[in-house]
């Protein structure tokens, strides 16, 4: 005759209790269906590392199955190799047109049955055609609290504007640069004596929290992109 008991944050509680265990020790009934994710990089891959650490912790609904870089011999590829994730180098300079470069990327994504794509320091602007193809399944992170300080040198823009708070935003990618619907944000305080380098590093630490959180919400279907370009939060 008692009311039904509601257990909140069960996955988080279990995850905290089994940090030293591998997924092979866990009952399959506790594990969510894992969505296949690719990460596109161009450099050191610090956000890639944060995503890898999160996904390999045990109870994530996301699984990174492929890392693609348009630059060879970058640290991000080494991070992926160490984590046992397949990698592919697709140099953009080998292609005369952006569409040809993206077709090569698309082929790799299809071969790995990728469901979601994360941009993590990927220094190429994607065409409208590619963005539309991955509408609602393509994420990017930007070092500001969007819609403020879009584009390049967002940290410098924040310092020049004299704001007290900035941060980072994970958003769905659309045709407008840094204009897609926001999935998650993390705030960072700006101190009076901050240099651009100091602020860049502080925001990076926030990015390493926000990006895994955003990917998890999208992978679990807690956040989706509406037809009108806004977020649906379930």
TrEMBL record:
One of its GO terms (biological process) is 'de novo' IMP biosynthetic process. The keyword Acetylation does not apply. It catalyses: N(1)-(5-phospho-beta-D-ribosyl)glycinamide + (6R)-10-formyltetrahydrofolate = N(2)-formyl-N(1)-(5-phospho-beta-D-ribosyl)glycinamide + (6S)-5,6,7,8-tetrahydrofolate + H(+). SUPFAM superfamilies: Formyltransferase. Its EC number is 2.1.2.2. InterPro entries: Formyl_transf_N, Formyl_transf_N_sf, GART, GART_AS. GO terms for cellular component: cytosol. Pathway: Purine metabolism; IMP biosynthesis via de novo pathway; N(2)-formyl-N(1)-(5-phospho-D-ribosyl)glycinamide from N(1)-(5-phospho-D-ribosyl)glycinamide (10-formyl THF route): step 1/1. Pfam families: Formyl_trans_N. GO terms for molecular function: phosphoribosylglycinamide formyltransferase activity. This is phosphoribosylglycinamide formyltransferase 1.
